[in-house]
Specification:
Blueprint lengths: L2 H4 L3 E8 L10 H16 L8 E5 L6 H8 L6 E5 L6 H14 L5 E8 L19 H6 L10 H16 L3 H15 L14 H6 L2 E3 L2 E2 L8 E10 H4 L7 E9 L19 H14 L8 E3 L8 H7 L8 H6 L16 H4 L6 H12 L11 E5 L6 E8 L2
Parallel strand pairs: 2-3, 2-4, 9-10
Antiparallel strand pairs: 1-7, 1-8, 4-7, 5-6, 8-11, 10-11
Helix pairs in contact: 2-3
Amino acid sequence: MSGTALAGRAVIAGIGATEFSKDSGRSELRLACEAVLAALADAGLTPADVDGLVTFTADTSGEVHVARNTGMGELTFFSRVGYGGGAGCGTVQQAAMAVATGAAEVVVCYRAFNERSGERYGLGQAGRAMDTGADRAAYSWMTPYGLNTPAQWVAMFARRYMHEYGATGEDFGRVAVVARTHAAVNPAAWFHGRPITLADHQSSRWIAEPLRLLDCCQETDGGQALVIVSAERARDLPHPPAVILGAAQGSGEDQHMMTSYYRERISGIPEMGLVGRQLYAQSGLGPDAIDAAILYDHFTPLVLPQLEELGFCPVGEAKDFIADGHLELGGRLPSNTHGGQLGEAYLHGMNGIAEAVRLVRGTSVNQPENTDHVLVTAGTGVPTSGLILGAAR
């Protein structure tokens, strides 16, 4: 099935999440089950209706355990997508393909972890158990020299981007300010009621220059789930569906896992450009038709090249696009209206997909006008994925 043939065949009919915290006090399996049950209730369906599950390779809650503990029956489809946050939109692509081809009728995508109280991804490779896998072999070229953590890896890209295009720390800070402004009015956000100023960003401590504390996403305990069904079935369900107009994955040439330093140019994200080209081809839309965006913001510097790779502004001009207020509610491309991973929660981007559904439904706490088409991106610096969701008409 071509990507074009997939467009419009499946929809997101339900969303559900746990609370977002720093210490959930319960297992990751329980978080997954709570999120799945909440999403099914939102969709007007029951566990008995589910015949497919998709999650991340990094998720500790296996499909059979989620199925057993929520009361699901037989599963005809189950799949996992790798590369950390890059998997987010890829899970929806897998689910949409399953529904469109008849491999399953009701597929739930989920992600749950205790990323603050349990295994903290931000600590990177240091202290992790040794293994003999290819990933560890690749990291062995860096870890002996102190290049250990995601912030350190991204700092290398950020510094090169600054050198090439004249971006500054303040340009990165504006991304954080917008996210926290949106989070401040979102009751579900960890930083609800706590906006920041650019001065707050500039005075926050260094993590790995040029990244400051407020350039880095938070660590979160929680779970998020999405329910995918056919467009036909969604007509009988309670909420207006978010139609999957485009769903794509992309891995660029000479791709590494957050350390693609050997390309001729390291100030862009070519894998995101690949995803964007597929999304526009599948949906028949272009950047001008996108009304809002959910941009993966685990680190602020990587938001800028996303805007460029996706065609919202020329290369090197994202700093000006942001400074002109275009990511704000009244701007050209309202973005991360839930607060993003910087402000709401770090759920490997799955909470961002849920916000895109709310934008299409018209129920976001920061609802812009005219959100017929919303673009969503997954993790950056890794093999990644993306979505274009549309309102049902």
